[in-house]
Amino acid sequence: MDLLLDIALLALLLATAISIAWIKDLFAAAMLAGIYGLLSAGFFMTMGAVDVAFTEAAVGAGISPLLIVMTLALCGRYQRADRARARLAIALVASVGAMLIAATVDMPSFGDANAPAHMHVAPHYISESMAEIGIPNIVTSVLASYRGFDTFGEVVVIFTAGLGVLSLLMARAEQPLQASPQTPVEAQSRDIVLRVVAKVLIAPIMLYALYVQFHGEYGPGGGFQAGVIFAVGFILYGLVFGLDAVRKVASHGLVQMLSAVGVLIYGCVGLLSLVSGKNFLDYGALAGNPVTGQHVGIIAIELGVGITVAAVMIMVFYLFSAQLRVRSVQLPATASSAAISPLDDLQGVEGRAG
């Protein structure tokens, strides 16, 4: 039964990938990309990688399609016919794919008990993690403690990516990032069903984000997943009630500051370890009992991860929404084409051509 499920998921993944590459309707391709992320999450679940599945569901099937759709609202829904560029893209994908396939030849078979990771690293994590770290979720032990340097690098990469988006879009979006003179009613989506549903969903989304943030030691979750879920609550509020309304809760300047604060929290935990005479990110120095120190350090760095991820996602949403406002200002100001909220701009994707 497991084999049939794996074959079915792989077949669906292959069909979805081919459809994404073949279709010229970019809006449909964005929706298929979300489906691909959801199928990938299901495939990770069948392999027992629950934390990875959680991340893929939140990022690949959740916030990424939304950002792609917001991009389409700026550049158009349909792909322009450019056969020369298409041939170049196919050649690039084929060459990279061939190199990846060649690289897998030297890798051990999936689940091979004699693989180096299973012979050396995995036994130590499995047998010693509870005694050294003191938390039941081995994945969190590995990500937050054993390979804390690598996770710190990932947080810095997310922060740097946010700075890249900020530097590219901030110049054109500077004026629209200031509050507009729209009234609260004008700033909202005109769909009353969406407003009511959003009011019902936003509080549980925030509560679930906090649960994922502080329950990562005992089950699937952690700062990366919680940060994305927390950002989704703000993005949903902004889509339905307008950009100005959500910025009253979290201004653009505050979000920029928090994106750096999360990285600083993570780095300061390592500096505290150094000051205490231990190695960088050696959480055992944070308390008299090394296991207690591990708990304190993991909670602190996961909080930093969650803050940075949430702030960067919200900042990217603000910047894209400001670009949509720039576009709407540049268009002729007619009652039929005026954009009232980011959600109304996204609904206009269907009518725009590249």
UniProtKB/TrEMBL annotation:
InterPro entries referenced in this protein's UniProt entry, alphabetically: CPA3_antiporter_subunitB, MnhB, MrpA_C/MbhD, MrpA_C/MbhE
Pfam families per record: MbhD, MbhE, MnhB
UniProt domain MrpA C-terminal/MbhE: residue ranges: 101-170
Subcellular compartments: Cell membrane
Record keywords: Cell membrane, Membrane, Transmembrane, Transmembrane helix
Membrane topology: Multi-pass membrane protein
TM region(s), chain numbering: 6-23, 30-50, 56-76, 88-105, 151-171, 192-211, 223-243, 255-276, 296-320
Chain ranges of the MrpA C-terminal/MbhD domain: 11-74
Residue span, Na+/H+ antiporter MnhB subunit-related protein domain: 193-314
Family, similarity comment: Belongs to the CPA3 antiporters (TC 2.A.63) subunit B family.
PANTHER family: NA(+)/H(+) ANTIPORTER SUBUNIT B, NA(+)_H(+) ANTIPORTER SUBUNIT B
Listed name of the protein: DUF4040 domain-containing protein
